[in-house]
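We now fix the convention by which a protein and its fold are recorded. The integers have meaning only within a learned vocabulary of local backbone shapes. The record below shows the convention in full.
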Amino acid sequence: MAKSKEPVFKLDAEEQELSDSLDRGEWVSVKNAKQEIAKARKGAANYLRKAARINIRISESDLLRIKQKAAYEGLPYQTLIASILHKYSAGHLHV
């Protein structure tokens, strides 16, 4: 009797739809896959490069809550803060 595969990650609705679409064979490779992969790698390297350092002062209670949320997400708290700032500066996070 074959065991059913248990998911390695818990997917949200959008991720699950993408996974299902891939499983259904709905994805096709682009003709210039090598160039697209190289472009994606370059973009990822640029995104992950940290060129500036800042120091900020925030309340201890805010920092504690940020650290708790980061721990829940499985991230270092500095990475969570950098991600939030990036999303805001790119216009993807509105306050």
Summary: The mean pLDDT is 87. Residues 70 and 77 are 5 Å apart (CA to CA). DSSP finds four helices and no strands in the chain.
